Amino acid sequence: MKVSILLPAYNAAQYLKETLDSIVNQIYRDFEVLLIDDGSTDGTQSIAKYFARIDNRVKYYKNEKNLGLIKTLNKGLSLASGEYIVRMDADDIMDADRLLKQIKYMESHPECFVCGGQMTYIGELRGNAPYLPCAYEDLYILSLTNCPLYHPTVIIRNRVFQEFGFRYNDNYKHAEDYKLWSDIVFSYPNSIANINDVVLYYRISKDQITSKFEKEQELVSKRIRRENVLHVLSLYDIKLPQSIDIEIIETVSSFIRKEKNNPSFILMLILSMLYMSMKDSSARIKHFILSGNCLLFVKDLLRIKLGLSILLSGVFPNRGKRFII
Fold it and tell me: Computed from CA positions of residues 124, 98, 94, 190, in that sequence, does the dihedral angle turn out positive or negative?
C-alpha cells in the first residue's frame, strides 16, 4: 500500500459524501482511506459504511466514545499501513491530482519528511488562502511566527511516526499540527516543504476548531512560538528569560551588530518578536529608537517591514499578535 489517507470525522454527514467522492476519484489509485468516526450522532456512519461497501479502499472505524481529534489522529497513525500518510478533513475537497502531485514530489525529494500545498477557500469564505512558501529555509523562518503548513494539505512519510516516534501531542490541543511541524523542522534539515499547486478546497464555517477555539489556539500557538525562539537562541548560547526585557533585547542586538556585513535575518526576526513581546509599548518604542536598533532594520524591504511592525505595534497591538512570545 502506497498511501494511507487519514480522515477523522465527527458529525460530518453534511459534507462527507462530497469529501469521499473527491478522494475515491483521485487520478492516483493506490491508497486506503482510514475513515475514523469519532462517536458521531448524525448520519456520518451510514455514509461511511456505504462508501466502504462500494469501494474496498475505504475502511471504516468507529470510536465507542468521542476521543477528540488528537487521540483519533494518533489512532489512525497506528492503523496506517501506507508508505505515506495523507491528511484530510471530512468537509474538504481534494483536487483530482493531489495525490499524484504530492507523491511525485516526495519520490523526487527523499530528504523531505512532510510536504504540504496551497489551498482555496470554499463555504462561507471564497478565494485563495494566503500563499505559503515552498523552500525549507523559508519555512524554518516562518515556523517562528506561524504554522508553516496547512494541515489538511500534507503528505507525510509514515516512517516519521514509526521510526522517529513523532506523534500529535495532546498537550498542544488546537495547535497540535503546528507543534508537530516545529518538532520536525528544527530537528532535521530539508525536512518540510510545500508545493506551489493548490491541492485542496478548504471549507470555512463557524463550526471549525479555528473559529470555535480561537483564543485557546492562540495561547497554545504562543507557547510553541516561544519554544521555537528558545531553540534558535540556544544555538547562539543565548538564554531566553521568562519575561522579555531590555537585557535580552540588548543581547540579541549585540549579536546582530557583530554580523556587520551579513546580519542574520532570523535574528532580526527574533529581535522584532522580543520587542513586540514587551508589555510596556511606550518603553518598547522609546528603546527601539534611542538605542539605535531601528537602524538595524533599514537594509532591505523585509527588514524595513519588521521595523515598521515594531513601531506600529504601539498603536495597533493586534498587528503584531503572531510575533508575541
Answer: negative
Residue 62 host element (H or E): strand 58-62
Of the candidates 239, 222, 178, which has an alpha carbon nearest to the alpha carbon of residue 324?
Answer: 222
8-29 residue pLDDT tens: 999 999 999 999 999 999 999 9
171-213 residue pLDDT tens: 999 999 999 999 999 999 999 999 999 999 999 987 665 667 8
Region at 86 (left for phi over 0; alpha for psi -120 to 50; beta for the rest) = beta
* Angle between helical axes of 265-276 and 281-290 (0-180°, round to 10): 140
Q: Rounded to an integer, what distance in angstroms lies between the CA atom of residue 116 and that of residue 95? A: 13
Q: Are 111 and 190 in contact (CB under 8 A)?
A: yes
Find the length of the chain: 325
Containing 86, the helix (H) or strand (E) segment is strand 84-87
Bridge partners, residue 84, by sequence: 3, 157
Residue 135: how many CA atoms within 13 Å on its side-chain side? 3
Longest dimension (CA), the chain: 71
At 190, list the grid cell.
Answer: 530539508
What letter does residue 25 receive in the DSSP assignment? T
